[in-house]
Amino acid sequence: MAVKIDEQTKLVALAKIKLGQKPREVSDELGISYSQALRLSKDLTEAERKNATLELFDLPELTLQTLLKAVKENLAIPGEVFGIEEAIEGEIANLQDEIEGLKALDENFTEAAGVLANKIKEIALTSSTPDTVYMLAKALSELQVSFFAKSTNVQVNNFDTAKYEEFLSD
Predict the structure, then answer these.
(1) pLDDT of the chain along its 170 residues, tens only?
(2) Diameter of the chain measured on Cα atoms
(3) What share of the chain is helix, strand, coil (3-state, %, to 5)?
(4) Distances (CA, A) of 8 to 12, 27, 69, 146, 166
(5) Domain residues of the chain, as ranges?
C-alpha cells in the first residue's frame, strides 16, 4: 500500500509533470512511488481538460503545512540557543490540533446551518401569513449574514443637501 503524499509534495510533483517531466523522473526525484506519479499525471491531464486544476490539491491544507514548516525552521536556532525546542514543538502541535478542531467545528456548523435553511424552506412552502413569511425571511437573512459577512463594516453617510457642495469642496 502506497504512503499518502503530503500536499506540498503533490503540488511540486504536479508542477514538474506540468513542466514536462515524466512520471518516472518525478517519482525518482521526489521519492514517491511511480504509481502515485503516474496517477498525478493522469489527474492533471483530466483536470486540465475540465479546466479544474485547482481541485487537484487542498490549498488551505498546503498553506497550513507550509506555514507550520516555516515556523519550525525559523525558530530552530533560537529554540536551540534558549533550550526551548520541545516547548516550540509542543506549541506547534497544539496549534495544529486546534486548527483540526476548528475544521471539525466548521463542518458541523455548516451542516447545522444547512439543516436550518432546509427547515426554513419547508415552513416557507406551507406558510401563508405575512408575519410568518417575514419571520422566515429574516431568519434566513441572519443565517446568511452569519456565514458570509466576514467583518464587513458598511458606513453610510447621510448628508444635508445644502452642505453637500461644501463637503465636495474639501
Answers:
(1) 567 888 889 999 999 999 999 999 999 999 999 999 999 999 999 999 999 888 888 888 888 888 888 888 999 898 888 889 999 899 988 888 888 888 888 888 888 888 998 998 899 888 888 888 889 889 888 888 877 665 555 555 555 555 555 655 55
(2) 77
(3) 80, 0, 20
(4) 6, 14, 11, 32, 57
(5) 7-57, 68-145
Residue with cell 534558549: 82
Give the pLDDT confidence score for residue 34 in this predicted structure.
95
Three-class SS state of 155: coil
pTM, entire model: 0.51
C-alpha torsion sign, points 147, 153, 159, 164? negative
Contact 37, 27 (CB under 8 A): yes
Alpha carbon dihedral 70, 72, 76, 82, in 10-degree steps, equals 130
C-alpha dihedral (82, 85, 90, 92), degrees to nearest 10? 100
Q: Which triple of cell numbers denotes residue 61?
A: 491544507
Q: Give every CB contact of residue 28 below 8 A, 6+ residues apart in sequence.
A: none
